[in-house]
Specification:
mainly alpha; single chain; about 70 residues
Length: about 70
């Protein structure tokens, strides 16, 4: 895959990647797909059926661990 610059933004590649990922998740029988998105990408996910979940909980993990 060739990576392109900002001039190709909004050309539909992100939507195609999301669509293919969801199709593969369906083939695998997955129950859900969860993403951590940048604010700019939220509308793309929303257009493809992603919704906010009040059940998704996340802890704050302080930095400074051996893996950060």
């Amino acid at each position: 895959m060739r990576v392109r610059g900002p001039e190709t933004r909004d050309a539909g590649l992100g939507g195609r990647l999301i669509t293919e990922t969801l199709a593969r998740a369906g083939e695998l029988g997955l129950e859900r797909v969860t993403v951590h998105s940048s604010p700019r990408a939220i509308p793309a996910y929303a257009r493809l059926g992603f919704e906010n979940s009040p059940r998704l909980l996340q802890p704050h993990v302080p930095r400074g661990t051996p893996y950060s």
